[in-house]
Specification:
The longest helix has 27 residues. The protein has an 8-stranded parallel β-sheet with strand order 4-14-13-12-11-10-6-5. A 3-stranded antiparallel β-sheet has the order 1-2-3. A 3-stranded antiparallel β-sheet has the order 7-8-9. The protein is globular and about 60 Å long. It is an alpha/beta fold. Helices cover 42% and strands 18% of the residues. α10 packs parallel to α14.
């Protein structure tokens, strides 16, 4: 079997688990943070810099790559790995979230989503089968089923109908999927309704996907609701299969998700914050344009081993930001990506030593308030 999760240890005081995810393009330790390379590139960074930061899996976006440059071009190049010169594991989403959040004049029907795309205005249909077709041509190691990202809040009957349709779409995607070197994940939906999360997770588990994602979270709901959604999905998923919490990148969500048995996380947050001059450090966020850093010739983070912290100072990074130099965005991005990956490295070590809860609490105490992320 070329794709499977080998669980090596479960923290005895929490649900956090340490393992190795085996893929056709290499093995990676979990729990892990996956940088987002929307258009087959992590903004401002090279694949070599991403690997130096310790990344395993990189995520790319099906919706955007479908239009630029097109999945056929990527396939002719030899797939995403060859196209972007990244030899590690990759993951693509289904494009469904972007259709629901970006595309215009959406009509949700049983066959799929009819929409007018935001690139050239053409009317299109994204069906479960079409999503699989695109993802197979892109060639990532892990691909996602098409689902509806349910808005929050939503009425029970709407969520029920949507979740049942997502399950039908998942089954259709499984039937359409032919590439044996790709692992197709099912996505647990159900909103903030325990019975619907349970129903969705159990039915997806019965379909025997190689892995599962928790969807419909981090879309505006309170933290306690998000954590409840995670718990209400995870508890009904197969223990031995990987679990992926989609679209979260703040420390509290990463660590609280890991405490609930999540293995994989992704988000654009670290590079977005970096481009806006907000490095993440072990002692909290830094607003690099603050005047107090004008003559601060110390590294961003005394506890960081990234290229940026080894070679540059806060004063220099402030200068680059105020001068609107792209190099500053790049250095901040290198740091933020490494910061989250290093935090997850610490989480893995803590799990193996059965002290994950203590590690989580200490990291969050030092980091401070996450509000505003």
């Amino acid at each position: 079997m070329s794709f499977y999760l080998e669980i090596l240890h479960v923290d005895k005081n929490s649900g956090a688990r340490y393992g190795i995810l085996h893929t056709p393009h290499g093995d990676v330790e979990t729990p892990m943070f996956m940088p987002v390379g929307t258009l087959a590139t992590v903004k401002t960074l090279s694949p070599e810099e991403i690997k130096e930061a310790g990344a395993g899996v990189i995520l790319a976006n099906t919706y955007h790559l479908h239009y630029r440059p097109g999945e056929d071009i990527v396939a002719k190049a030899g797939g995403l790995h060859a196209f972007m010169n990244y030899d590690g594991p990759m993951l693509t989403d289904s494009g469904g979230f972007q259709v629901f959040s970006l595309a215009k004049k959406r009509q949700l029907k049983e066959e799929g989503v009819h929409f007018r795309n935001d690139f050239n205005g053409d009317e299109e249909l994204l069906s479960p089968e079409k999503a699989i077709e695109i993802e197979e041509k892109l060639g990532a190691d892990i691909i996602m089923s098409l689902d509806e990202c349910i808005p929050y809040p939503a009425e029970y009957e709407y969520v029920k109908a949507s979740t049942e349709r997502t399950l039908r779409w998942a089954k259709r995607g499984l039937l359409a999927h032919k590439r044996e070197d790709q692992a197709l994940f099912g996505i647990v939906q159900g909103g903030d309704f325990q019975d619907l999360r349970e129903m969705c997770a159990k039915e997806l588990a019965a379909m025997d996907f190689p892995g599962y994602a928790i969807g419909g979270t981090s879309i505006g709901e309170p933290k306690d609701v998000c954590f409840r959604m995670i718990e209400n999905g995870v508890r009904y998923l197969p223990f031995e299969k990987p679990r992926y919490l989609m679209g979260v990148g703040s420390l509290d969500y990463l660590l609280e998700g890991a405490a609930r048995g999540i293995d994989m996380f992704d988000c654009v947050l670290p590079t977005r914050l970096a481009r806006h001059g907000t490095p993440m450090t072990s002692l909290g966020r830094v607003n690099i344009q603050d005047a107090k850093y004008k003559e601060d010739f110390t590294p961003l983070d005394p506890n960081c081993d990234c290229y940026t912290c080894r070679h540059y100072t806060k004063a220099y990074l402030r200068h680059l930001h105020l001068a609107k130099e792209e190099f500053g965005k790049r250095l901040n991005s290198i740091h933020n990506i490494r910061f989250l990956i290093k935090t997850m490295e610490g989480a893995r070590k803590a799990i193996q030593e059965d002290r994950f809860n203590e590690y989580k609490d200490e990291v969050l105490r030092l980091y401070g308030d996450e509000r505003g992320f």
